[in-house]
Amino acid sequence: MSKKWKRFLAAALCAGVFAVPNFSEVQAAAEIPTDAKGDATSMIKVENLKLTQEWDKVFPKSEKVNHKKITFVNRYGITLAADMYTPKNYSGKLPALAVAGAFGAVKEQISGLYAQEMAERGFLTIAFDPSFTGESGGYPRFVASPDINTEDFCAAVDYLSTLENVDEDKIGIIGICGWGGLALNAAATDTRIKATVATTMYDMSRVTANGYFDYEKDAETLKKERQQNRENLNKQRTLDYKDGKYKRAGGVVEDPSEFPQFVKDYYAYYKTKRGYHKRSLNSNDGWNMTSALSFMNMPQLTYTNEIQNPVLIVHGEKAHSRYFSEDAFEKMTGTKRAGNDTIVGNKELLIIPGASHIDLYDNKNAIPFDKIDAFFKANLK
């Protein structure tokens, strides 16, 4: 250590800036680790994940596409697992789509259905498990983060951009439910995303901070409720640390009989043969409870009014969550919904008559795949 640094540290200690046990520890800490001098710690490293190879989706396998498991790494070093679907007998470079959602689901459920369908229509697609969930890596398990989960979409674009059979200028994303809001957030920051579809969208920051139907409550009530939630969640942080494990928030309720219709709809998908999956958080014990803190404090749609590339938002007319999409569209365009198909520039809000929130999970009579197909083919060209 140089005399200059020794004099600086001595002066700092006298001034009470540092509290260092002894000088030898300071000297040891000042030595730069060998790895930090080079590129070893900056390498993008793929974790060796254990991936299920048999078909374990909740939807039937298509004979029109090829399927395989792949992995990619996000900016936080977490390795994500995905299913890749590729049309059979294609030639040249393909437009590509990354698909995720619903919030608390896995790629064997809704996102996989969307990805397989879009592959049948000529796109190379990947449906991925978000960080900390499903077959993807990351510890502790079952954590949700507005930052990391937005990054998951951007990392999927990283991966797709490197494939020889993908046109890197023709990459789009599809986000479903809570991942619809995260898809818009990703589109606001990642200019490589040339077109975005958000279906049956949730704004997870908003619903976490305000509860459902926040427009029915006055601002002071919402403020008090948020404060109470903060106190409860921070107490849970202390308990978790004492216990050495994270308490789970619980998935979809086991008995929805006393709950609103949309909870019964969730049960009908996640808790029955229709959509149950052993790795799905919603089908089982849910997220870590304290994950809610970051969403409550970090509004994720702040800059969606600056998205320049095309966006299609799709929602069901009868969905309890429709207001999320309507308000997101208004924020992006400055225009309120006008009818079931409202277009402002390259932004569109499509409302599906009679459809509920869950209808856009797996009801092919409600999901407007023809519209989504036409949207991407018009904008990924």
Overview of the molecule:
By secondary structure, the protein is of the alpha/beta class. The chain has a domain at 65-203 and 301-379: Rossmann fold. It is 36% helix and 16% strand. It has 13 helices and nine strands. Helix 5 packs across helix 6. It is globular.
Summarize the structure.
The chain is α/β, with parallel strands linked by helices and 381 residues long. 36% of the residues lie in helices and 16% in strands. The chain has helices spanning 3-14, 23-30, 34-37, 110-120, 146-161, 178-189, 204-210, 219-243, 261-270, 292-297, 322-333, 359-362, 369-379; strands at residues 65-73, 79-87, 94-100, 124-128, 166-176, 195-199, 311-316, 341-344, 347-352.
Q: Average pLDDT across residues?
A: 91
Report the β-strand fraction as a percent range: 15-25%
By CATH reckoning, the class of the domain at 65-203 and 301-379 would read: Alpha Beta
**Biggest sheet architecture:** 9 strands, mixed
Helix/strand/pairing category = alpha/beta
Rg value: 23 Å
Compressed to H and E, one letter per element, the order equals HHHEEEHEHEHEHHHHEHEEHH
Features:
alpha/beta, 381 residues, Rossmann fold, 9-stranded mixed β-sheet, 16% strand, single chain
SSE topology:
Blueprint: H1 3-14, H2 23-30, H3 34-37, E1 65-73, E2 79-87, E3 94-100, H4 110-120, E4 124-128, H5 146-161, E5 166-176, H6 178-189, E6 195-199, H7 204-210, H8 219-243, H9 261-270, H10 292-297, E7 311-316, H11 322-333, E8 341-344, E9 347-352, H12 359-362, H13 369-379
Parallel strand pairs: 3-4, 3-5, 5-6, 6-7, 7-9
Antiparallel strand pairs: 1-2, 2-4, 8-9
